[in-house]
Design goal:
The chain has 176 residues and is α+β, with helices and mostly antiparallel strands. The protein is built from five helices and six strands; from the N terminus they run αβββββααααβ. It has a domain of 102 residues. Strands 3-2-4-5 form a four-stranded mixed sheet. A hairpin with a 2-residue loop joins β2 and β3.
Length: 176
């Protein structure tokens, strides 16, 4: 019995020392400020986009045309509904998801898939989504215009907390 309890005590001691060693090594690497952050280039569009969408069938919208315009303030969404009604939204109106405007909220996913998504906060490193477009011509035109939008965007380098084990800061932000 004494031999078993001696071996068990040594095993516990070895496990404890190994755990402390691993924890200490991890904490030391976390303390280095150069390893806790990553830097990335962020693009912010300086020009705007006019996006035309069409309701193809009930609650299914597709982008039929997108054009780059001189300023973000000139951005518009022109929606054509199946019943023939047309509506125009500014960028600010499009960003509002409002229960009083169910048609507007139904098209928001499609808008995020196109260039208008860049105006609404989508990263410019994300490509436009082919499935958001009504046809190949609209998609091809958009990919060409997308290059213009990116080439004229303002660029800045930002430092963000590294994600994963050892990151000490939250990358989430909360409105107040």
């Amino acid at each position: 019995m004494t031999t078993f309890s001696t071996k068990l005590a040594k095993l516990k001691k070895t496990t404890y020392i190994a755990s402390v060693s691993i924890l200490f090594t991890g904490m030391m690497s976390c303390g280095d400020p150069t390893t806790n952050y990553t830097t990335e280039e962020v693009l912010d569009p300086t020009q705007g986009v006019v996006t035309e969408v069409k309701e193809m069938r009930e609650d299914l919208f597709r982008i039929t045309d997108e054009q780059v315009v001189p300023t973000k303030a000139d951005s518009r969404i022109i929606a054509e509904y199946m019943d023939g009604m047309r509506d125009t939204f500014t960028l600010e109106e499009a960003q509002l998801v409002d229960a009083d405007h169910p048609k507007r909220s139904r098209m928001s996913g499609i808008l995020m898939g196109g260039m208008m998504g860049y105006m609404m906060g989508k990263s410019m490193s994300s490509p436009v989504n082919r499935s958001s477009y009504a046809n190949d011509n609209a998609y091809k035109k958009s990919t060409t215009s997308n290059q213009t939008l990116k080439s004229t965007a303002s660029r800045k380098t930002v430092k963000t907390p590294r994600k994963g084990f050892g990151s000490t800061k939250s990358t989430r932000s909360y409105g107040g």
